[in-house]
TrEMBL record:
<dbReference type="Pfam" id="PF13962">
    <property type="entry name" value="PGG"/>
</dbReference>
<keyword id="KW-1133">Transmembrane helix</keyword>
<feature type="transmembrane region" description="Helical">
    <location>
        <begin position="56"/>
        <end position="74"/>
    </location>
</feature>
<feature type="transmembrane region" description="Helical">
    <location>
        <begin position="172"/>
        <end position="192"/>
    </location>
</feature>
<dbReference type="InterPro" id="IPR026961">
    <property type="entry name" value="PGG_dom"/>
</dbReference>
<keyword id="KW-0812">Transmembrane</keyword>
<dbReference type="GO" id="GO:0016020">
    <property type="term" value="C:membrane"/>
</dbReference>
<feature type="transmembrane region" description="Helical">
    <location>
        <begin position="139"/>
        <end position="160"/>
    </location>
</feature>
<protein>
    <recommendedName>
        <fullName>PGG domain-containing protein</fullName>
    </recommendedName>
</protein>
<keyword id="KW-0472">Membrane</keyword>
<feature type="transmembrane region" description="Helical">
    <location>
        <begin position="94"/>
        <end position="118"/>
    </location>
</feature>
<feature type="domain" description="PGG">
    <location>
        <begin position="47"/>
        <end position="158"/>
    </location>
</feature>
Amino acid sequence: MQWEIKWYKFVKKSMPPQFFPRYNLKHETPKEIFINTHKALTKEGGEWLVKTSESCSVVAALVATVAFATSSTIPGGADQNTGIPLLLNKPAFHAFAISSLVALCFSITALVFFLLILTSRCQEKDFAMDLPRKLLLGLTSLFVSITSIVISFCDGHVFILSDNLKHVAYPLYAALCFPIAFFAIAQLSLYFDLVWAI
């Protein structure tokens, strides 16, 4: 639909300005003809966007829930007298705190973009820039939030393991990157299409 709109705009620019307000024998303008001939494509594109946004918004909501729970949790607890976290001086604690906050922010951002798509009217003009841009930003935010929540989990999990088990856990942490890499590779063609079209 996006390419059809671009083609329509190209044709419109290449024609004399007085041509487009004119009517055909059925008393239709070129814009009305375009809208009528692309109703099925608009409906199909809108349904695909709604399904994609619904699926991604469920994942974003789950990530936001987990990120909220982890961002309000202090690994190792706090000092009873001062309230200062006991593991504050460890680098993994700072990485945990920042990654859980990043996951929370980006998952909520992704959720907002997907809700904007779900509440959109999905008209033919929205497919030119508005909906693809929202989808691109939503998918990017979702990817960042998933990556951040995995980093947060790994940083928080380091505190549970004893020193002699940490060398065993690092390869498992690296294996957690495979689902994220698979998700990124699976969405790469969609990313390129969206960026090229926008």
